[in-house]
Amino acid sequence: MFRTALHGEPNRRHRNAAALSLLIRKGSSEKVRHFAMFRLAPRRAKHRNGGALMWHLILAILLLSVAPACFAQKAPYDGSSTQFATFAALYERALANRGVALPDELEDIGYFKGFITGVVASYPLPCMPVVSLKQVWAVVAKHMRENPERWGVQARDLVLESIDRVWGCTNSPAKTNERSR
Fold first, then answer.
1. pLDDT tens for residues 107-142?
2. Domain ranges of the chain
3. How far from 56 is each of 44, 45, 62, CA to CA, in Å?
4. Most buried of 16, 126, 146, 177, CB within 10 angstroms?
């Protein structure tokens, strides 16, 4: 018997070939020859034309790699408050539609929510009571809609300003220092 170099166990192809040659003889019965031909013989690939299958796979991979370029790409977020205000408008429209948004708007709404969540988590807001993020998102969206003249300010400052107007501290030293600048 033949053995593989790495594992020391008989190689199946050679073992089957040896058994096949022993069983296929003129003296063997028809059933034994049939078993030897169809059970012990190496199996063929399911696709007889393996080259065509390979070309189909290569073509499919190429088409899938080119497909994203066919779709219109959105402009990336540039950090402007104007673009952030459009995200706020999309969020309010989704709320008005009972949480249903178009698939291409989901990324912008997610950015809006994530940005506000990041600002709330990053900046200490000592006087803010425990509220849900949904309430914070709604307050910021309303503030963005009602104050388009403030869209020239950084989006982070608009988020902090809208939170401060609703839940802000009165006579806060940090608030006084920011306004005196």
1. 899 999 999 999 999 988 888 888 999 999 999 999
2. 12-70, 81-180
3. 19, 16, 10
4. 16
Classify residue 36 by its DSSP letter.
I
DSSP annotation of 40 = I
- Would you call 3 helix, strand, or coil by DSSP? strand
Q: Cα dist. 102→11, 71, 75, 98, 174 in Å?
A: 58, 16, 17, 12, 41
* Rounded-to-integer distance, Cα 156 and Cα 112, Å: 11
**Whose structure tokens read 């166990």?**
9
136: number of Cβ within 10 Å: 22
Supply the pTM of this predicted model: 0.54
Per-residue confidence (pLDDT) for residue 42, from 0 to 100: 55
- Crossing angle of helices 133-146 and 155-167, in 10° steps, is 110
Tokens coding 19: 């058994």
